[in-house]
Amino acid sequence: MNQNQFQSCIQACYDCAQACDTCAAACLQEPDPKMMARCIELDNECAAMCRLAAQLMSRSSEHAMQVCQLCADICEACADECAQHQAQHCQDCAAACRRCAQECRSMAQSGSGAGTAAGAHAASH
């Protein structure tokens, strides 16, 4: 796996993590932060997963594709939650999460043959 090949996915992951951090912090400043609890929880999970996915892609890890697939799922869940709120920070976060999910799914699909081969190799040991 070539790190440069996945630069747009790495950047989307870091952009999403930043949007999630911003959203979580802004949600805590809302008039009723308890109403934003699920949003904050997903923002935090999504940011952590996006950073992990970016790190693994940067290192050309054999597990990057699987992590990116999970990252896409978490990004979608976060986007769905954020999209329910009218606050601009939530809308911005939802958009960043959807872009990241699309990039991660693309990356995971483009490397699925390599992931299968790596998985088969690991299983044989």
Task: Please provide a written account of the structure.
- This protein has 125 residues and is mainly α.
- It is 79% helix and 0% strand.
- It has helices at residues 7-28, 37-58, 64-83, 88-110, 112-123.
- The longest helix is centred in the last third of the chain and has 23 residues, at 88-110.
Helix content: over 70%
The class by helix and strand makeup works out as: mainly alpha
Mean pLDDT: 88
Given the structure, what is the number of helices? 5
Model regions low in confidence, pLDDT < 50 over at least 5 residues: 113-125
Pfam family, one: Csp
InterPro entries: Csp_YhjQ (IPR005560), YHJQ-like (IPR044543)
Organism: Massilia varians
Protein name: Ferredoxin
In short:
InterPro entries: Csp_YhjQ (IPR005560), YHJQ-like (IPR044543). With 125 residues, the protein is mainly α. The protein is 79% helix and 0% strand.
What keyword list fits this structure?
disordered C terminus; 125 residues; Csp_YhjQ; mainly alpha; Ferredoxin; 5 helices; YHJQ-like
Helix and strand layout, with pairings?
Elements: H1 7-28, H2 37-58, H3 64-83, H4 88-110, H5 112-123
Helix pairs in contact: 1-2, 1-4, 2-3, 2-4, 3-4
InterPro entries: Csp_YhjQ, YHJQ-like
Protein name: Ferredoxin
